[in-house]
Fold these 4 entries.
Entry 1:
Amino acid sequence: MSGVVIIGAGHGGSQLAISLRDEGYDGAITLIDAEGELPYHKPPLSKTFLKQSDARPMPLRPASAYDDREIERIAGRASHVDIVGRKVALESGQRLSYEHMVLATGSRNRSFAAWPKASNVFSLRSLADAYALRAAMMETRRVVIVGGGFIGLELAASLRSTGRDVVVLEAADRVLKRVAAAEISAAVEAVLEEMNVEILSNTQIINVDCREGRVIGIETNRGRVTSDLVVVGIGADAEVRLAHSPSLATDNGILVDPALRTTSPGVWAIGDVANVMSRENGTRLRIESVQNATDQARHVARCIATSRVEPYQSIPWFWSDIGPAKLQIAGLSSGSTERIVRDEPGRLAVYHLRGADLVAVETINNPAEHVLARRLLAASAKPTAEQIRQGPQVLRMLIDI
């Protein structure tokens, strides 16, 4: 067999397989799925799936979508990649040859090196993780969440809505510090505090009290925090364990060129695992988001199917539903030199400028302005601070001409 072999069947891998056919590719397509599930939506795992005991995973598309397009799905895990021989070995012993290989292996949850093995400590990445966490919740009253990023805060809101007592431990001086402006953090914290979620910022873990295989307390610089159940959400690392060939360069992910090609011919990388040069600020970065994975998948499918290799140029955007707060981010704010805040009753918008350039917009409960922001960024519009303060009606004039 030759053709395209896709390792990883998450949002990116699944989209790539479908898009290859939609772009007219007529060669063999093989999708390797380590989980063995019909590819599913991951965002609901931290929300609806946990709150409803009978909730089932939401497939990205029905099995017939793959079957009708003659996409072979293999439930199994790739164990080795032979870059020179262009072959992928599976743990089952099966070997697949390829003309193009796409690494869509995603990322894996980061963990504390010194954290004890305990039956009541969980993380959330996969459907199996979500099933385990949901089962453990049934007899749990008090939950400690370690980490105030997107996943930790989504979980905090979801678990609190089911009646659990929830405490969030965050090492930084505010939640979402790595990804959002201070005004966004403050608004999200206010929403969670209104839900009676306790947020402890500037909190460092000193020791974990583990007895009979369970964590019963966590010693911090701010005192002892007791727990029935602990969820650790302190970030993720790129899943690069297959990329150990000397011809595949890695550094915080798999290094790819502007077209998403790796340093080895015929090998591409997309999604969380891909470290790509940002056209916005000229630095390398990995972007962990569903939309980034699916947009990159469509791009690589087009390149392979048409044999026309072009730079990937989509504007990144993100979202997170944290209780009643819908946080949406368009663009990348790193390196910005000025921000303009528009705070209106029930909604918020933060615009980031780098010199005269608009580079990112963060909004809460403001979907129309988020869509407008994406249009402004795609058009490389250069609104002034005064135009931003005047609001969407004025900003639309920059692109509706």
Note: The chain is about 25% helix and 30% strand.
Entry 2:
Amino acid sequence: MVDKRKRPAKKAAGKAVPKTAKRAPNAAAGDTGRLQEVRAEIDGIDRRIQELITQRAHWAAKVRKAKGELKAAVEYYRPERESQILRRVLDRNQGPLSDEVLLRLFREIMSACLAQQEPLKVGFLGPEGTFSQQALHKHFGHSAQALPLASIEEVFQEIESGNADFGVVPVENSGQGTIQSTLDMFLTSRLKICGEVELRVHQHLLSRTGRLEDIERVYSHPQSLAQCKAWLRANLPHAEKVPVSSNAEAARRARVADDCAAIAGETAGQVYGLKVVAGPIEDRQDNTTRFLVIGREFFSPSGHDRTSLLVFVRDQPGALYNVLSPFARHGVSMNRIESRPAHSGRWQYVFFIDVSGHVEEGNVAQAMSELGEYASDVVVLGSYPVALL
């Protein structure tokens, strides 16, 4: 005869799940212990990183002392030296962080070290939130003092007057070509090109409501309107397109009415409190803008340089061929050529030419020595480090 009253006890004793559940806390404790070890190791690494950054800042201060008491931060800044440091960062990188991430980190460290006593003052085409400001931060880091200015001409003027140390101005776009107003400034300005920045440009449609159906008017810089014309034709064919001085100015205007929108970067939307309606909306996936860094002096070779020239040709047959032939003979690669009215007489033209190399070195110097035979005048706008990424 079976005693049925004992069955519940037997069933409970035979359960396997509770025994497994009792072992889980031990496993979890092991995982927690391992996690604490990993975090402790990361904390130690963070301390060492901070100590090394502090050491670097102290040595940067010693460099200032070694150079003597100079007048301003701009006199300590050496773009060729920064370019060499950053190229070594790229050469050493074996992952997992990308080249772009490491460059940004080191750029910010160098920017902070340089700005210990006084930051560089850098003008850009404002207002706040433009792609020019993004290019400025990419090149100089966030420790530089960014000065928003109303026009490209004003950027040049503030550097010439000494109110700004450097400036960042757009010069060409991969899809829309040259920004002519920038080139024309070099015809009369004595400023020099000290560097270049290439910025991958993503355009977004921004508005106060965030609804496409509300939009009757779109503000943007003419270049941005051109970069997005196919998207606008397909999605806002009847909306009025209004060109303005900058994309940030477009964002400022769009924030005052529900039926208005701006084409600009996401940063401008954040600055002016706009919502993203759509984006990226640029017609070309490789949409990139090149910016020039302008200042008051030349700098030494970095080892990976570009030289920009302003060449006035004589009015004679084969003038342009004669100007370019010295570069060909000496194996100098020409990166870009652009003609503009010379402003010195009717139907007179000047050529903007970019070549690989530094004007003080090797083949470029040899080619330059022969240019005078064929050009009425040659102005070296600058020899500067090639953009890294």
Note: Residues 17-67 form the longest helix (51 residues).
Entry 3:
Amino acid sequence: MSLALHQDTAPDLDALSEAFAARAAEHDRTGRFPHANFAALHAAGLLGLTVPRAHGGQGEGMAAALKAIEAVSRGCASTGLVFAMHLTHQAGVARETAFPEALRARVGADAVRQGALINALRVEPELGSPSRGGLPETIACRQPDGSWRLSGRKIYSTGSPGLGWMLVWARDDGAAPRVGPVLVPARAHGVRIEESWDHLGLRATASHDVVFDDVRLEDAQLAALRPPAEWRVPDATGLAWNTAGIGALYTGVARAAAAWIAQFLRDRVPSGLGKPLATLPRMQEKAGAIEELLTANARLLRGLAAEVDAGTPPGPAESGLLKTTLVENAARAVEIAVSLAGNHALSRRNPLERHWRDAQCGRAHVPHVDFAHQSAGREALEGGA
């Protein structure tokens, strides 16, 4: 179902966020993938938000995507991460003209009509993240009949139980192998999920291992493979989308933590004080510190979206710095909220401890702080030579 079917009423993002928040603790406890949340996003037309209009979607840019991602993440961080990756990669598939138009149209239409999610599967047990170089051990081998067979294993495959399409980072078996994303239907014969995800935070993302065992592919699905040297030229727009989606996700988590601590301070009236904690200058100062961090994030995200939607994304080094800044600001905001609530912040009866755990995961996304700083520092020092 597309938003085009709801032209008179835009999706109520706040209502969706509240509904997701009501289920978030249970999903966190069990680690089960939140299928119902994505059914609701599909019903609201939001899974087609960044699908081109020519493929049945809304063709929206980054500004609309970030608004939706932040709202969803306020309710459920796990849903927010999978949703952010879906919108990011739908926009990416639309830009990747190496894939035939018919295949790109199918991927977009599947999201709009069936609610099929997409995400990139890049990390491997030995390689780690390909962002630091190296060839993947997931390999597509040419068959005598002209088809291909894909075999390998990916770890940290976010949203794996709910995916309809997988962008699998792989190489071919040529003497000079080409590498890149291979489009694989998640229900293809030979695709197997091994449940391995049991993390501190973002527990319902179900980021399990995915095994590919002689999965049959056609040329069109490998059309984006290219020599490794060609990947050394970063995709500025793709990196900006990654930064923004992650930034909006964790800003949404921090907004949820800020709302909870504000209500707690208004409601909490210690007998020895006789008035709400919210009236104390120290509490007001700390609440202001939280707002400082989140106001900065909001400004950064708005500016980034405006530049990307205008076709002028920042350079890769700047995107890396923005990612680390957005994530660290969000994590610090949650930490301040935790410090104000004391033992209440550590109780599983309250959502703040979940927000704290989810916020820690932001630092695990690439680019990591050391890589972002080194890249920006190298650029700065070489520029002054």
Note: The first strand starts at residue 117 and ends at 121.
Entry 4:
Amino acid sequence: MKVLIVGSGGREHAIAWSVAKSPKVDKIYCAPGNAGISEYAECVDIGAMEFEKLADFAEKNSVDLTIIGMDDPLVGGVVDVFETRGLKVFGPRKNAAILEGSKAFSKDLMKKYGIPTAGYENFDDPQKALDYLHTQVKFPIVLKADGLALGKGVLICNTLEEAEAGVKEIMEDKKFGSAGNTMVIEEFMTGREVSVLSFVDGKTIRPMTSAQDHKRAKDGDQGLNTGGMGTFSPSPFYTEEVDKFCKEHIYQATVDAMAAEGRPFTGIIFFGLMLTADGPKVLEYNARFGDPEAQVVLPRMKTDIIEVMEACVNGTLDQVDLEFEDNAAVCVVLASDGYPVKYEKGIPMHGFENFKDKEGYYCFHAGTKFKDGEIVTNGGRVLGITATGKDLKEARKNAYEATDWIQFANKYMRHDIGKAIDEA
């Protein structure tokens, strides 16, 4: 098979690594890719939002399967473009990717079908949002930009004054662009956060192993929201009892709800869950692999990823058993100092040879590129240093040891990824 992967981040590197292991595949392309992905794939200079050019490339090069890694092209309708041209593609159509593309849509869907989530209201008028806030007595309260905002469009407001400033920021100042034309105001839930990625073929769902992300930029969950500073898998808080509840009341219920709405979902549904005192509730949906969740989940997956993705596209997922290693993985993101606000690019990096032939250690590239024959930084989140171990504590120890193997001038990371493991 020939496979095309669309995207350029750490998630796409993890997908490329996983695809390269499949005996079914002998050629991988990635558009646009990055320095690390080029180890497995031929990188093609086409942007993720250039749908017709991507489809032309797939057609011309007889690509057997295209995998869409990123949210923007999915929400924009890249899958529809490929399907119209008879090309096999893994990911949801535009009318299903709205599950991530509009938080207002997903909240209304959960309310309609009785899927557990936080209480909320949707607003497209800032004055009405402010009026509603003045009726609220419980703080903190959560403000969410409706559309895509690189994982950063959520504000947790501790006071009425903070919430008023948040409405201005999202709806009037357009901090997140048009994503803030509509806004969700949601009750603040407390508990453990857990992420569960799952394969879906429109009717059947196969959940993967659990993971937990760390969104805040600084240790102790301080600082600004980011795309994710590190992850671990599995979550010790995701028990068999929680899994049973979610399978019955959340996972299959979501797939059935989307089908009932005439929006059958094929691809990946990412369930962001909060394990509250009243049971698990949905924080958010995403319509693709999480980043950096993919970097800890895929190295633990035993089943051939191509076999599973083909089953999703063909509607035969019920015939696939999804298996994972009985181990653990931790990913620590190496970022450029100053992320997620302002940071330098183009800084040379060294030490990649330390990962060669090291079983259980992975260096997934996110913001990197080649310049004058060497690898340099090209983004805020630069690398995802991932390691496995027999349990979470060993995996965490291994991952942090491996962060010393890579050197670059403005390297920044959190030092408490997976610290929750010690409290489990």
Note: Residues 2-91 form a domain with the Rossmann fold fold (CATH 3.40.50.20).
